[in-house]
Amino acid sequence: MRQKIMLKIPRRPYFGPKEKRLLYDAIGVAHREFTTVQRAIKTIRQYIEDANHGSKPTEAELQSQLNEMTRSCGLGKGNKSGLFKNWQKHKHKFISSPGPEESTSSEAGVDELPNTGLNVAWDEERGDGIDTDDERQQEEEAEEHRGQADTNKIPRVTQPTTREDSVHQTECSQRPVDLQDTLSPPQDKNKLSVKPDVVEFTIKLLQAVEGAGSASLCSLDPEDDIKITIDRSLQKIRQAIPSLLQVNNVARLSFSEATSQAAQLAKVLFEDQAWNDRAVDEINVLIGAHVDSVRVVLQAFAAAAIYLWVLVDIEKNFNFDPNRPMTDQVALEALKQAQNTTFDSNRKSYPELDATMSAEDGGIFDKLRRVPSEHPHLFKDFDIIREVCHLEGIAKHLPMLADRFQQQLLDALRSLCQSTDRLHWSSSKESSSTSRLESQQRWRKQVVEAFLEVLELKIKMRKARLLYHFTFPTVRSSFKRESMESVHSRDVVTPEDAKVDLCLRPSVWFKRRQNQKDTFKVIIPALVSIDGFAADVEFS
């Protein structure tokens, strides 16, 4: 008999060893490392592509894929026999064989898990041989004895090996898929296919979790770490541009068309009128310099949009004082602010997320949200709780920001291709709707990765010992070697009196927090294009 066990955060000031382990199990679901989640998403997406290409995978291939997914998520290490037994028992949760036999799953002794949203729940059938009440009671007593021996120890944030299968099932049985066209099962009843709702919800969930997981990468080491991060961000933006060009198949724009479309693009990307005017001026200067490649325009706006939406929007929504130390009180205030703003805005934008969050006990984040307000003294023992609660607002706000940015950017860029009679199309780049959709999905993924990289940079700035700020060089401002870096090839010497045409990356400044008399110094120069450049611009 299957029984669902829910995690309960006790409303009392004392946390025993068993409660600590259960709490860390819950945190482990929502607080995975950023790179681990990225690998899991990549593996699952590859699994979708393989399953939907019409080939029927063998049992060994499916088992190998499951093991790879498990290893990517950091789960199930060293328990291949248990994984195989769980796979045999629960593989119908991951694949489906459309046919009459599928409707008779209940007759075969298979019970569907209830929709519990993001609540942490697992079956007692965990592949470890605990099938009777007596054995389960013995296991609980053994856990209590083990916990009393190490009361003062803080358990590591790990995910239980044998619970992976059932937790994954609970997370994957939620809402319908958004991209039915790309994940629809094949018509051949003899071929296996991935359940669309299972896979899509898994990907959405992992993408939502990776914002919280990126907190584990935050470092207090200042200059070198942040410089590496921002360089990676720009590199990811550059890598995304060719994919976007494949989506739109745009080769060149005329002067008048580029100018008018640039104004429309600026109005969509930038809400502030001052930024609108500046963006139009930048494009006019760019076109005036006889640069006819749309790649430059798209790269400039992609970079500007990502940096502005992340670095500025986070500032507007979360009023953290950089001069205040990161104490428990500051974390509590940030948590209250996130409760009043982020959760309400997410519920309006993502009703399906609100439904899963409010299911039964309210979900993982609701549990974590109640811990500091009810038991503030626990911060002394659970540093990771403070980190999760402090960054929860940003992590929950990220999907909404990323979705808004992606949608508006793509809508604006699609408008560049609406008038085919005015644009020059490259016949060699024309592709089918399927390949265009794949390119669009790849572009979205690359933009999200760049977005997360810059968010990681923002968090590092907030947690660093130094005080940071950033500036965007304005159009037609003079080039300054101490705070700017040219996008020209290295063979071109940039004169000091050159004028800035476009800013692709802001400059980052810092000073010591302890010494108020210090002035800000440049740690990362701004990346700019200057007057008169043409074919000598480096994009690789």
UniProtKB/TrEMBL annotation:
Residues 130-142 have a biased composition (Acidic residues). Residues 96-107 have a biased composition (Low complexity). Residues 92-191 are annotated as: Disordered. This is Uncharacterized protein. It comes from Cladophialophora chaetospira. The lineage of its organism: Eukaryota, Fungi, Dikarya, Ascomycota, Pezizomycotina.
